[in-house]
Each structure stands twice: as structure tokens, then as C-alpha cells.
Amino acid sequence: MRKRWKCDLRSNKLLWEHRRRYSYRRITAELHRRGMPVNHKRVARIMRDVAALRILEHEAQVQDKAVVAAQKYLELAVTRYKGGVTSYLGVTTAESAALSDELTSVNILGRRMVNAVLLVQALGGGWASSELPRRPECCGKLTSTSR
What we know:
Layout: H1 13-17, H2 24-33, H3 40-82, H4 88-122, H5 137-146
């Protein structure tokens, strides 16, 4: 039976300091040199997940700006409609654009959450289902408002 090595990559500064300059192979070799026998695939997965989170964070910032701009456009369209300048078609178009941008923002948030969980798993962390709350707060709010 092979001995499984358990190493804590969360506290390893090498992995976090050089993730943008070094490839996963070079970091793996350096970890081996320091006495931490870690699989190169695990290091590659961690680096990929960190990069994905950074990219999604940037996407979320850009999308948040788009949501704010769509809301301003919607307010302008409603003001123009109330002033009699345009028809209601302009308002519905602005509402559609605002809802589309909000939906995209929520999708990005979901992808960020999934990638954060994948990163925790790649680092060797996790949780047991017994540690989770039996009924999250949001579920109670959803059921009480839908009645």
C-alpha cells in the first residue's frame, strides 16, 4: 500500500508568491526540493483555480459597472416616457437590458462561488454535510414570502 503524503499547500508561501512567474512544474520541483512531496497535477489545479477566480473577479467588476449603467439608462427612459418624448417601447427595451445585465452578474457570481469551492477542494479542504445548517436562512425567507 502506498503511503499518502499530506501537505498543507494553503500556508506555503512559495505557491502564492510565484504563481504568476513560475509554471506549475517549477513550483512542484521547488516544493519537492523543500521536502514537500506534492503531485504536479494538484499544483496545476490550484494555480488554474486561482487564475480563474482572479479573472472572474475582474469580470464581476466590469459587469457591476454595466448593471449601474443599465439602471441609469432605465431611469432616463422612464423620465423620457413620462415627459412624452418617447413611447413605452423605449422603457421596455431599457428594462430588458437592465434585467439581462443583472442576470449576467448573478451568473458570474455563481461561477465565482463554484470556483472558490473548487479551490478549497484542491487545497485539501472541505466540509462535512453534518456541519452545514439544516435550513439556511435564505430558504426560510423564500418559503415564507411565496405563501
